[in-house]
Specification:
The protein has about 325 residues and is of the alpha/beta class. It is built from 7 helices and 18 strands. Helix content is about 25%, strand content about 25%. Strand 17 and strand 18 form a beta hairpin.
């Protein structure tokens, strides 16, 4: 890590890095010295710019900017980083449209689409990273006719602790920890970008629940052939144990609660005890994911793969 750009002051960054209410204490050494944040002896330069143009990315010698503010959603936004000297950007959120980014990547699904020439790449969302692997596996095994997904998501920082007007969506003005709150979601659109073969056959909705971390997807789908809960679980278990989703998809038959998956690095954890089949082509399943830690791991996976592709492409050039 070369630099960290945040509006917070250095002392606050040090404190919040050392002590995390959700994930616990940082296991290494963190100390601020001037504009340098020392993490296990390595110096990370701390910057405080509210705009991409306020940082001389070229002078810092960065290879990749991880844009994690959630503020920037268009190609015009991304170009501001490039014009300020950043060679390439990986966004931690879906972009406004497919045209606003050179590639949207879900690790384990389509990272091989990267050629090394991309400048603006999106890591999609935590919910997309959970849902896409599951739907890919089930579509390949059974064929999917239609899908309905409900995201049951822990509270987020765009919700107030007590009622307060701060959002055009009036439901989001309500206390995060006193209600289950329906909110809008772009999950269906995000999945269709990665799995275009399912375009027009996905609907999604979302609710925020009064928990701090860990969310789940409740997925109902109609298959193209008859199946059973046992067969669905077998297919998902095999996908978790081997193949491109090993280490990304997990499978459990234990009677877990959401807090058991805090700090879990997987994109999705199939809760086999909740799989149901009726009809016999109507399948319902539940998959957990740590919407913070799991997604952060995928950001690093995509960043590492992206830079590896860039370096490999360079080495082949005459």
């Amino acid at each position: 890590i070369v630099a960290l750009n945040d509006l917070a002051d250095q002392a606050s960054i040090e404190y919040l890095t050392r002590f995390d209410s959700t994930h616990g204490r940082f296991p290494g050494e963190v100390k601020v010295d001037g504009d340098c944040l020392h993490i296990n002896g390595d110096c990370v330069k701390v910057l405080r710019s509210a705009t991409p143009e306020g940082v001389d990315w070229a002078a810092l010698g960065v290879d990749l900017v991880l844009e994690c503010s959630g503020v920037y959603h268009t190609r015009a936004d991304g170009l501001r980083f490039l014009q300020a000297g950043a060679p390439r950007v990986l966004f931690s959120q879906p972009m406004a449209s497919e045209a606003d980014v050179d590639a949207t990547v879900v690790f384990g699904i389509n990272q091989d689409c990267l050629s090394g020439d991309e400048r603006l790449v999106s890591n999609a969302s935590c919910t997309t990273n959970c849902g896409v692997p599951l739907l890919r596996v089930l579509d390949q095994a059974f064929g999917i006719e239609y899908v309905q997904i409900t995201t049951i998501h822990s509270a987020m920082n765009d919700q107030p602790v007590i009622d307060a007007y701060h959002h055009e969506d009036l439901r989001r003005t309500r206390s995060a920890f006193q209600s289950v709150i329906p909110v809008s979601t772009g999950l269906a659109r995000g999945i269709e970008r990665l799995l275009p073969e399912l375009a027009g056959r996905i609907q999604a909705k979302a609710v925020r629940v009064p928990t701090v971390n860990v969310s789940c997807l409740d997925i109902t789908l109609q298959t193209a052939r008859d199946t059973s809960a046992a067969e669905v679980n077998r297919v998902l278990r095999e996908a978790a144990l081997s193949g491109p989703l090993k280490g990304l998809l997990a499978y459990t038959e234990l009677p877990h609660a959401s807090c058991d998956f805090n700090h879990d690095p997987h994109s999705a954890i199939v809760d086999a005890s909740q799989t149901r089949v009726s009809g016999p082509r109507l399948v319902n399943l539940l998959a957990w994911f740590d919407n913070e830690w799991g997604f952060a791991n995928r950001m690093l996976d995509v960043a590492e793969h992206f830079l590896h592709v860039v370096q490999t492409t360079r080495s082949k050039q005459p």
